[in-house]
């Protein structure tokens, strides 16, 4: 982030006040330009309207080069790198992350590959609680119905097999307010506490993937505390660089977010925050190395020979985002405002609606697709997504919403658009025109052959 011009105090070295203003005040460095942004992302396929930053993120050329320098440093002298560079570099990245998320201690921050790994670490600990009889068989773990697919599978693999009772919080879609989420969450906790059970863990998304919505995590964590939930884990794969992240305000025991989605890191890097508390058990990385028992942060910093460069470029990423007006906060604000504008434009063009109010989205938003496209299954969403990619050069995820009883000609297909700094208005116009062309041609998903 560019600094403001230096304030000149107009004093001489001996303390006397000057009577003139310097003729050449120091100027602020210029913010990054549109052409420089285009150059940073020139490796993106120019034939694709890439309005799906949410899935895999994006890495600018500046960071790719920084990563390459770390890789070459390792390859030049691996022993020196291991003994003298790696631990120091990862600690520097952890310190930056600690400040970004407003954690109290760098010891609370571990760096792992991705949010899926972080979920495995937390859920593995919960599974040990059941297998070691710290928890009673049938005690509950609560998660949102919108939970990411791999996290649901991890809950199945760790919690269900260990004897835990898993409760999904059903959420409506489209959504009109946070109250709908809070009401259903309270009902799920009541169910979890029935028959004398304890709710041992609540798994809460911060920004759900599909359908996409910002969850009121602060309110849900507060409810968990009031209702005696043992531990709260926030799966925030999309959050850092996308919405506000503050560990003191959120108050969760565990919190994870990827840095390769919205914070410009190369894949793969995420942080796992573990609140320092006597009530929080010691966590362990599922890959056991010779660092086992030295604390999660140290265990995670060495899980065997591999490429650690994504974990080492965080200082360079901070330099990159600070070239933008307002730094990462400015980027988040502009991404949000633009994705809402583009979402409203698409909804108006197609005669549909947004999947939630603008205040319930960050840098991604859901828009209803015309009902006449005939999206009637998850398979249809994949077929249509492939068709848009291959015929129209548009990359966008699509969500199937099963119609409720009695609904006729309802909107059953929604797209999720993202906005990141490299996106242009033409990307969204290209998508708009592709859907309009399909509608005008009388296209339906039934006309597409399955792969």
From TrEMBL:
Tell me the GO molecular function terms: carbon-sulfur lyase activity
Q: Where is this region: Disordered?
A: 1-24
Q: Which domain of life is it from?
A: Eukaryota
What name goes with this protein?
Aminotransferase class V domain-containing protein
SUPFAM superfamilies under this entry? PLP-dependent transferases (SSF53383)
What keywords are assigned to this protein? Pyridoxal phosphate
Q: Report biased composition (Basic residues) as residue ranges.
A: 1-11
Residue span(s) of domain Aminotransferase class V? 64-277
Q: Which InterPro entries match?
A: Aminotrans_V_dom, PyrdxlP-dep_Trfase, PyrdxlP-dep_Trfase_major
